[in-house]
Design goal:
CATH class of the largest domain: Alpha Beta
CATH superfamily of the largest domain: NAD(P)-binding Rossmann-like Domain
CATH architecture of the largest domain: 3-Layer(aba) Sandwich
Largest sheet: 7 strands, parallel
Number of domains: 3
Oligomer: single chain
Number of strands: 11
Structural class: alpha/beta
Radius of gyration: 20 Å
Number of helices: 16
Helix content: 40-55%
Low-confidence stretches: none
Distance between the termini: 56 Å
Strand order of the largest sheet: 4-3-2-1-5-6-7
CATH topology of the largest domain: Rossmann fold
Shape: globular
């Protein structure tokens, strides 16, 4: 069996680092042909020297450093802001792993599909804001989209080989984030560090804050709608603090299939890279006796109104999800910069979503215009 050639967008983030761990386990199966990062150019340099990709793209800060410290006769050095689409469209690439966050992933995601690449994506925002466009491109160019997020990977695995008309409901699980059992009255008294202390997963700052507000779970509802051809009402969010069951699928006969696993992102990443095969993993196995119990509860929509707002935006459709995502990105960034309080994240986003008047979202330019409008509105409110 030959190599699968892998391009990793965002190789210095948590998804990129874990993807490289998986590749290290199977050197006879995978070869890295492209790596990109934005600011963490020193780690990128180490990765390039270890994996010898054909292409590397970096942000402006790291350009001159890598130009000086890499052998550019062996690796093609590119500007990540200008040439990321050139890397995903290279003929040698088989799988594009999207580990970059936010709407910045939209254009390279679409380009990869148009070039008939397999896309293994941990980026939910692109699907949230332009799900219709991406799924149409996936079908047109016969380019598979394999989710890397643990919850979407779980649904993907439970639905594999089964007819959609047999599906009754999807249960999308959520750990509840760092504030699950913290009284709402204490939210603004917590430090950024305390809110970033997720009890189950080690993730980037943005997604950890979104997990604390449950906005991330709202994004996942919209994402699941597009990935699996569901209606919003077919998806039920359920809090599962142990984060062992990653999601469940109920069929019309009442049978429920669940995908279980420990909290290790290497598991869904490995499945995305090896699909449809399953290969041995070095991850720990579940000790059911030690677990003792698995618990579930309804989300508290009053305490975490961002979840309701996201579901509202998903039902409204059009450019509402793009506006929701852009406003949230700006508000979370402002919170991390200590410009607004934690509870103001929701207030900023809600104001912008309420103000928005949706338009048809079949055009990429329309979606990006709505994205920019929401960012400008958020900066006005924050500023």
């Amino acid at each position: 069996m030959g190599y699968k050639n892998i391009v990793i967008l965002g190789s210095t983030g948590s998804i990129g680092i874990n993807t490289l761990k998986v590749i290290d386990r199977f050197p006879e199966r995978f070869r890295v042909v492209g790596l990109t990062a934005y600011n963490n150019y020193k780690l990128l340099e180490k990765q390039v020297k270890k994996y010898s990709p054909r292409f590397v793209a970096v942000g402006p800060k790291g350009w001159s450093y890598l130009k000086k410290n890499l052998n550019t006769r062996k690796v093609k050095l590119l500007n990540v802001e200008e040439s990321i689409e050139d890397i995903v469209s290279d003929r040698s690439a088989d799988i594009i792993v999207i580990g970059i966050r936010g709407s910045a992933a939209l254009r390279p995601f679409l380009k990869a599909l148009q070039c008939a690449k397999t896309v293994a994506t941990a980026n939910k925002e692109a699907i949230v804001i332009a799900g219709d466009i991406l799924m149409r491109a996936s079908r047109k160019y016969k380019a598979p989209i394999i989710p890397v997020d643990s919850e979407q990977s779980a649904i993907f695995q439970c639905l594999e080989g089964r007819k959609r008309q047999a599906l009754n409901k999807v249960y999308l699980t959520a750990s509840g984030g760092s504030l699950l059992d913290v009284p709402q009255s204490k939210f603004d008294g917590l430090t950024v560090k305390e809110i970033l202390a997720h009890p189950r997963w080690r993730m980037g700052k943005k997604i950890t804050i979104d997990s604390a507000t449950l906005m991330n779970k709202g994004f996942e509802v919209i994402e699941a709608k597009w990935l699996f051809g569901l209606k919003m009402e077919d998806i039920q969010v359920i809090i599962h603090p142990q984060a062992i069951i990653h999601s469940m699928v109920e069929f019309v006969d009442g049978s429920i299939l669940a995908q279980l696993g420990i909290t290790d992102m290497c598991l869904p990443i490995q499945y995305a890279l090896t699909y449809p095969e399953r290969l041995p993993s070095r991850s720990k196995q579940i000790d059911f006796v030690a677990l003792k119990n698995l618990t579930f509860r309804e989300p508290n929509y009053d305490k975490f109104p961002a979840l309701s707002l996201a579901i509202y935006a998903g039902r409204k459709g059009g450019t509402f999800p793009a506006v929701l995502n852009a406003a949230d990105e700006e508000a979370v960034e402002a919170f991390l910069a200590r410009k607004i309080s934690f509870t103001q994240i929701y207030k900023v986003v809600e104001k912008i979503v309420i103000k928005h008047r949706s338009v048809d979202s079949s055009s990429l330019n329309t979606i990006l215009d709505a994205d920019q409008w929401a960012r400008q509105e958020a900066r006005k409110i924050i500023g």
